[in-house]
Amino acid sequence: MPATRDRGEIIHYAGRHRLSPAVRDGVPALVGPAETEGRCGWERFFRALGARRLALELDGAGEGRLVPA
Prior knowledge:
Layout: E1 3-4, H1 7-16, E2 20-24, E3 27-31, H2 42-51, E4 54-58, E5 64-68
């Protein structure tokens, strides 16, 4: 599946799956409601995403993971 760096697509994906942005040791992550470590705002998340040159890849089942862009 193609990967995306589009902010709107990533934010909508996170909303549909009840995920929040986080940055842990400089690495961006999308975390579930029970995870609070490293939670941050979207701007910090996207800065870390760009710095690490990552993108969100969706597989056929709608599961996402951060991969090299």
